[in-house]
């Protein structure tokens, strides 16, 4: 079942790369614009969607969590392959799209964090005077 988590990641990655290429063409930049970030957002949304509808078995969820944790090093390795100098020479479109992608990701992450319910267990507050020798009358 863990392999299904890997398959979900692969589908999100391929779709993200495709959408990043389309975005690059739309912005007249000859590179992928935010494909890996789009893929990560798709993975987050797919996981949340499947969890809400109980379509995500525990072992598949473990596979998704594993690859979700491994995704950041993959993003760093892929970013190292991109030619930043030519992107900056391509004009302000690349810089503006990067800033927009970061801003959109920050807003989406904030929205996801607000939508999840915090499961905080209430603990009894410590009493100031727990001395059994003291009574309420004093």
UniProtKB/TrEMBL annotation:
<dbReference type="Pfam" id="PF03817">
    <property type="entry name" value="MadL"/>
</dbReference>
<protein>
    <submittedName>
        <fullName>Malonate transporter subunit MadL</fullName>
    </submittedName>
</protein>
<keyword id="KW-1133">Transmembrane helix</keyword>
<dbReference type="InterPro" id="IPR004690">
    <property type="entry name" value="Maln_transptMadL"/>
</dbReference>
<feature type="transmembrane region" description="Helical">
    <location>
        <begin position="93"/>
        <end position="112"/>
    </location>
</feature>
<feature type="transmembrane region" description="Helical">
    <location>
        <begin position="34"/>
        <end position="50"/>
    </location>
</feature>
<keyword id="KW-0812">Transmembrane</keyword>
<feature type="transmembrane region" description="Helical">
    <location>
        <begin position="62"/>
        <end position="81"/>
    </location>
</feature>
<keyword id="KW-0472">Membrane</keyword>
């Amino acid at each position: 079942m863990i392999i299904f988590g890997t398959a979900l990641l692969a589908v999100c990655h391929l779709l993200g790369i495709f959408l990043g290429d389309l975005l690059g063409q739309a912005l007249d930049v000859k590179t992928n614009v935010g494909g890996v970030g789009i893929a990560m957002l798709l993975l987050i949304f797919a996981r949340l969607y499947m969890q809400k509808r109980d379509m995500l078995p525990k072992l598949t969820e473990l596979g998704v969590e594993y690859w979700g944790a491994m995704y950041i090093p993959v993003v760093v390795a892929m970013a190292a392959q991109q030619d930043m100098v030519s992107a900056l020479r391509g004009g302000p479109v690349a810089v503006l799209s990067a800033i927009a992608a970061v801003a959109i990701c920050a807003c989406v992450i904030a929205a996801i964090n607000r939508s999840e319910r915090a499961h905080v267990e209430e603990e009894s507050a410590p009493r100031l005077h727990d001395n059994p020798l003291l009574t309420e009358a004093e």
